[in-house]
Amino acid sequence: MAELMTIIESHLVAKGFDGRSRAGADGTEYLSISVVALVEAAEELKRQPGVVLIGLWAAEAFGAPGFTLFYAFEQRGAPAFFILEVRLPGNRGMSIAGEFPAASYYEREVSDGFGIEFDGAFDRRRLFLHEVYPDGCHPLRKSFDGGKVLPARITPEREYAFREFGGEGIYQIPVGPVHAGIIEPGHFRFSVIGETIFNLETRHFWKHRGLEKLAEGRTADAVVQLAETVSGDESAANACGLAMAIERVAGTVVPRRAWELRTAALELERIYSHLGDLAGMVVDVAYPAGAAPFFILREEILRWNAELTGSRFLKGFIVPGGVSRDIPIDFLEDLHEYTECFLARFDAALDDIYNSAWVIDRLETTGIVKPELVSPLNLTGPVARASGARVDNRIDHPYGLYQELKPEIQTDEAGDVLGRFQVKAGEIEESLRLIRDAVNLEETGPVRAECRPGSGYAAAAVEAARGQNLHWVYFKNGRVDRWKARTASFSNWLAMEHAVIGNIVPDFPLINKSMNLSYAGNDL
Amino acid sequence: MSLSQIIGNILGPKRAAALVFNESEFEKIGLELKGEIDRVFGRSLAIRELDTGSDNAVEIELNNLGTPYYDVERFGVCFVASPRHADVIIVTGAVTLNMAEAARKTYEAMPQPGWVIAVGDDACGTGLVRDSYAVLGAADKILPVDFKIPGNPPTPTDIIRGLLAFMTTILSQKKKR
């Protein structure tokens, strides 16, 4: 049994609470406790080194009437996840946002979806249900039939209350939801003194599409298709994360060949995503000629995706049990060859940027994410790594071939835009190496195993381009009863509000681009 | 950057010249589109993109149209920052409840005559999320859609081909009037 689990369990027993722990099919440690014991457990968990809240979600009618809350934790250095299962007799829970600030966002999400209230919560505003949803509408409840919602009239009293900032010379700039570029909708409320940002409040979920409700009743294949639409440029990562959770429920062993091809797809996705970010950052400092090589390389990778899998966004390729089609060896040989030619041109493009003082001047010291924010907010991916955190789901919780491929972690200490630029550039080169090492050009084999989940639940996490994406799925008689996806974007968006403070408004697009968080993947 | 590097950049062989773009089909459609835009819109077509609930793949492809491989501005297609500057609104994604009001306002800000093109399966009404409680439906549920370019997502070439077909319908509308 995992060490952390033993500590928490014995702590609770000593305090007179009773909890039963067990290992799940996914290697995750589960501990069922009451809502009163939760606060005690949270306090004890906070005292343990390196414990981070990585997810919080609810399920209804999960084995028994009423609600069950799931608090997912990880401890830096421990491969297994740790999930507290809290049974709620009614619809009142306890907030643990005091111990784990990341909980606040999750608690608001659970309140919207299920109508569960959290005692002690410091922020009770709605999250993904905007004012247009009538009061008392909780779409993730089983009693909600999933049909259409009659939009409510938006009166001034029902309007969303942004935090108030007053004082001499402070004014607000509201931006969005519809922005000036070809970009997803979101709202940013800047409080500004002169040109300097004093505070930023983001309001998202304009694109809330109700994906988790749509998953209910679907088969394994159909729900993975839904995962691909969480965020278009994370299609492979989310399909893989959910497929892994489903495979754990079904007890499926994915063939090695399938993992080779999955790894290639996952790393290609990281490469094209990061290339877009590098190009975007360079465009945002008004150097389009410097960005052009990155755009060209990205387009080539998108074409490779189409060549290899039939989709420029790798959609429909990763399926429960493996991959949907084999890739001919000669295609893969060509890909190997291409990576060489890619690397030379990529390095030349990077040299151009690193030798351009005016570009570096804009990137350096801009939008710093302080390292002490990483654990409380559960920051993940390049955003965390650029602030010195050695976190990477491929290394911390290895899946597929990553145990043997041993990806080399890319980190930076500065936490600024330049740091994120360098981390992403380093990761592109490392991903090329992983693709070359993952794909065996000699042997082939089956690419898909049978995967028939019956009943049960499991969690799985992948390292998407933006960081750790967590999937948890509960199957009942071969159909999805509850699917929860928590993307890296959902974790990382809060970092934006901190990173922009003290910067000037014109640098906001640059900071935003350096993190490149997904709106669709956040809003679900 | 040293002086010899700068001179080398001007006079030396360009890195891009070494890359062979086999884009004859895209070139052909693009030039045809340019001809149509010249005739109908007076040399340039101004497009405002409006995302009402896509998964962002369509946005990435629309952005790609402006990158060096495609560079559609040379055909007279430009993406503008405000609906007030737009001839056409391109809607991507099913219309979510949360976005409906903002989408209406964006459309109302466009000068008339203006057109609406739905791009991507979700905006065209055949996407995965059409039955969700959180979406009103396809783009035509709240905006007068003139033309549809389906795909999950449509490739840059699909989009340009769609724009060309859209020009043809505009032309026939004009003749009828």
Low-confidence stretches of chain B: none
Mean pLDDT of chain B: 88
Poorly predicted regions of chain A are: none
End-to-end Cα distance of chain A, whole Å, is: 35 Å
**How many β strands of chain B by DSSP?**
7
Overall geometry of chain A comes to globular
Concise synopsis of the structure shown:
The complex is a heterodimer of chains A (524) and B (177). Helix content of chain A is 40%, strand content 18%.
Overall description:
Chain A: One of its GO terms (molecular function) is quinone binding. Chain A: InterPro entries: ComplexI_49kDa-like (IPR052197), NADH_Q_OxRdtase_suD (IPR001135), NADH_quin_OxRdtase_su_C/D-like (IPR037232), NADH_UbQ_OxRdtase_30kDa_su (IPR001268), NiFe-Hase_large (IPR029014). Chain A: Residues 37-146 form the NADH:ubiquinone oxidoreductase 30kDa subunit domain. Chain A: Residues 294-450 form the NADH-quinone oxidoreductase subunit D domain. The complex is a heterodimer of chains A (524) and B (177). Chain A folds into 3 domains: 2-119, NADH:ubiquinone oxidoreductase Nqo5 subunit (Beta Polymerase, domain 2); 161-203, no CATH class; 211-439 and 451-515, Cytochrome-c3 Hydrogenase, chain B, CATH 1.10.645.10. Chain A is 40% helix and 18% strand. Chain A has 17 helices and 15 strands. Chain A has helices at residues 3-14, 35-47, 103-114, 211-215, 220-228, 235-250, 256-284, 288-309, 329-354, 357-363, 381-385, 393-396, 402-405, 417-438, 488-499, 508-515, 520-523, and strands at 20-23, 29-34, 51-60, 67-75, 82-88, 92-94, 117-119, 170-175, 187-193, 196-203, 318-319, 322-323, 456-464, 467-476, 479-486. In chain A, the strands form 5 sheets. Chain A has a 5-stranded mixed sheet, with helices on one face. In chain A, strands 8-9-10 form a 3-stranded antiparallel sheet. The longest helix of chain A is centred in the middle third of the chain and has 29 residues, at 256-284. The model of chain A has no long low-confidence stretch (mean pLDDT 91). By secondary structure, chain B is α/β, with parallel strands linked by helices. Chain B has one domain: Rossmann fold, CATH 3.40.50.12280. Chain B contains 6 helices and 7 strands. In chain B, strand 1 (45-53), helix 3 and strand 2 form a beta-alpha-beta unit. Chain B is globular and about 60 Å long.
